[in-house]
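Example: Esterase.
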Amino acid sequence: MDPELEAFIALFPPATLDDPVTERANFAKLARSVPKPDTSAMTVEDRLVPGEPGVPVRIYRPYEARGAIVWLHGGGWVMGDLETEHPWAARLAEASGAVVISVEYRLAPENPFPAASDDVYAVLNWAADHAAELGVSPDRIAIGGHSAGGGLAAATALRARDEGGPRICFQLLNQPGLDDRQETWSAREFTGTPWMNREKVTAMWRHYLDGRPAPSPYAAPARATDLSGLPPAYMATAELCPNRDEDIEYAVRLLRSGVSVELHQWPGTFHGSQAILSAEVSRRQIEELGDVLRRAVAF
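Written out as structure tokens, the predicted fold is:
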């Protein structure tokens, strides 16, 4: 493990997802400890996207936007909101020059699949319909997220393809949760890795899927049998993450289906460790996400 990251492990609170209410409070406390982002070069606005129910979003609009991304927070489908994602959504907007639409989708276990998926799809359609208001071209809208949010992003790309929804120009997938079956080597073997391990992954899928196997690829994208016709993708994986192998396998399957993919396996890292901004490797990860998104929406 990268020594700069290893020094922080003892500071993490336990996160088993057995008590979602307590875990959400701990997650929010962690987010408040992150240095505040610089939002001086952008406007930040909270909106409610119409729907049943309405979906809260926070829009980060750099003064010279180059495109947009519907951005989905992590937290195992159980934790996270606009406030916990604020440090990362703002940094992504700053680093990429893209309009970042951060989504507060409904959380499990109170709202299991397909609640979050439906919320994200509603926001994607809203963004496409309001591209002119956002100051971007409707064909320059990407989708992306971290962890559970990355899984939602991949699932939304599948749904948009299948249902003839808005054209997504790019997928920005950072350590996404893609496969509820947990059959890969990393999913089986990483039982004691920091922050995310097999037990926690099992719990998050149980909450999200209401204790049942994924009913469709829109719940667990790795179950999709056809990955052709999907948007180009960037896939980032962490070496010591249970999701590592399912993410790499998904990237390879995209490639074999004719989808252009950039794959970066970050050595010495663990799930979510890019949040430790004092570590050089973490800063590199954040900068690369911004660079990749900037290139993806610039043309």
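The CA atoms of residues 18 and 203 lie 7 Å apart.
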